[in-house]
Specification:
The chain contains nine helices and five strands; from the N terminus they run H-H-E-H-E-H-E-H-H-H-H-H-E-E.
């Protein structure tokens, strides 16, 4: 099927609903973008960033990829972060994974997935870092979910190790980095760690300022 008429109809109904609630919404939205939050999340279709946290268009800047990875050679992710921090002046970065993540599962599987193998290799390195803890978990679901949690914590570290974030702190810019995991089963976000608010919470081996 190549005709996506239903999607256009859904869009029209959505726009009409928004305008019924606020006739000036799109006029105001088109003139500025001033979100306070950057969401770095998984590309999974079951994890819609804005809806999960109840924010409207214009209130949440979003970057998504498989397994919510923050890799410093990924110019896409780094460009989003730089734009969000330096130009939009977001105050919060939320790295948000989710339980049952297919990308994490692929990283833990002993099989080939094609190009994806190169991407999720970064998750395998997180696993090796926590191998003793992970190997002690025998329940498959619990094993996968714990890996999802550890991956989020690791990616928060990767965010704070960038010159983008560290330079913002050096400038005195208000910026906090969070690590969250979302449950598709109940729709609730879990906080994985204390928020990181400054360079003093970053291991000195990663200081670049």
């Amino acid at each position: 099927m190549t005709d996506l008429t239903q999607l256009f109809e859904n869009n029209r109904q959505w726009a009409e609903q928004i305008k019924a609630e606020d006739p000036e919404f799109f006029a105001k939205l088109s003139k500025q973008q001033s979100p306070e939050y950057l969401w770095i999340g998984c590309a999974d279709s079951r994890v819609p960033a804005n809806q999960i946290v109840g924010l409207m268009p214009g209130e949440l800047f979003v970057h998504r990829n498989v397994a919510n990875l923050v890799i410093q050679t990924d110019l896409n992710c780094m460009s989003v972060m730089q734009f969000a921090v330096e130009y939009l002046k977001v105050k919060h970065i939320m790295v948000t994974g989710h339980y049952g993540c297919g990308g994490i599962a692929a990283a833990l599987a002993n099989q080939q997935f094609g190009l994806l193998d190169y991407w999720v290799r970064n998750v395998r390195e997180v696993y090796l870092k926590h191998k003793e803890e992970m190997d002690a978990i025998t329940d498959k679901k619990e094993h996968l979910n714990r890996m999802c949690e550890l991956n989020v914590i690791e990616q928060v570290g990767n965010v704070t190790h960038t010159n983008i974030v560290q330079n913002a702190w050096k400038r005195g810019q208000e910026l906090t980095v969070h690590g969250w995991v979302y449950s598709i089963e109940d729709g609730i976000i879990r906080n994985m760690m204390p928020p990181v608010t400054g360079i003093d919470q970053v291991d000195k081996r990663y200081h670049i300022i």
